[in-house]
Design brief:
single chain, 11 helices, globular, 154 residues, disordered C terminus, mainly alpha
Length: 154
């Protein structure tokens, strides 16, 4: 007898994002081997000490990085895709109950703070260092084309 799947939607789901991302996933490997802690220090002069708290610049950088890694050049499309991808949510630290920054936030930061601070250059240097630190794992990380690009750019 042929079974039929009854589609249902639960109000709550009980699982950890951490448990859903495989150990060898590209974003997990980047998170393990690439240090992005420099972001807040490098951008601190771009933010005021007063006013509303901003969106964490490391979060913005992680989302932009996902766009670059997966070939998504549209901020609108990136935000739309981020709503659905468990691994991307895990990498950014955004749970499904947390709001994703508005797509216009990325353009404003990319053409403003990020460009003025040479943040992307520092990010690629951090990638290169992460790959150097795990030399044998460069191809395993899936970062080989990026490492080659960074080395050629020196």
């Amino acid at each position: 007898m042929m079974g039929r799947h009854a589609r249902s939607e639960s109000l709550f789901y009980y699982f950890r994002l951490e448990d859903q991302v495989p150990e060898n996933h590209l974003l997990r490997l980047i998170d393990t081997h690439v240090d992005l802690s420099f972001v807040r220090e490098q951008l601190k002069d771009s933010y005021s000490d007063t006013g509303r708290p901003s969106i964490d610049p490391e979060l913005l950088l992680r989302i932009v990085l996902i766009g670059y890694l997966y070939g998504i050049s549209s901020e609108r499309k990136l935000v739309e895709e981020l709503r659905m991808h468990v691994a991307w949510r895990w990498f950014t630290g955004l749970g499904f109950d947390q709001e994703i920054p508005h797509h216009s936030t990325f353009s404003k930061n990319r053409h403003g703070r990020f460009q003025e601070s040479k943040l992307f250059e520092q990010m690629f240097l951090s990638f290169r260092q992460g790959c150097v630190d795990v030399q044998a794992g460069i191809k395993v990380l899936g970062l080989w084309p990026l490492v080659v690009w960074v080395r050629v750019s020196d």
